[in-house]
Design brief:
By secondary structure, this protein is mainly α. The longest helix is centred in the middle third of the chain and has 33 residues. The protein is flat, with a radius of gyration of 22 Å. The N and C termini lie far apart (46 Å).
Length: 141
């Protein structure tokens, strides 16, 4: 049942938002700093903690997975749109900083995934061959 896990998600969201508000107050900013991200991390840690101790039933885990797929990306997208609006009002430096972060993030994907250079070259060569079928498999048809 999907309702399982909603209380855990809501609790993590509330705690994350409170911590984000407290961080904003501590830094003298009238904003929530990272509340959604903190909530997501809390959900990951609490879920992992409960799974390690066999205290997370399958129904609850399925409910959390459902809400991860539906709710959290929507909240992150809403937070990102607010950040874009703030960047436009902040000027050129904030726009350049955002663009640089995106470019560096894209460049670091192969490094983080640990894909060797030879595999990346093989993937690009397979992509250039069309549908990825080798000459041997084409001849077999």
């Amino acid at each position: 049942m999907v309702i399982y896990g909603v209380a855990l998600l809501a609790g993590c969201m509330m705690v994350g938002l409170v911590i984000g508000d407290l961080l904003g107050l501590a830094l003298g900013i009238n904003a929530n700093l990272g509340g959604v991200g903190i909530a997501m991390l809390l959900l990951i840690f609490v879920t992992s903690f409960l799974k390690d101790r066999d205290k997370l039933p399958d129904a609850t885990s399925a409910g959390i997975n459902f809400w991860n797929a539906m709710y959290i990306p929507i909240v992150v997208a809403m937070a990102a749109s607010q950040n874009v609006a703030a960047a436009f009002s902040g000027g050129l430096v904030s726009l350049l900083g955002g663009a640089l972060a995106v470019i560096l993030g894209l460049l670091l994907v192969p490094v983080i995934t640990g894909k060797p250079e030879a595999d990346r070259q093989n993937d690009s060569m397979n992509a250039h061959q069309g549908n990825g079928l080798t000459n041997h498999s084409k001849a077999a048809r």
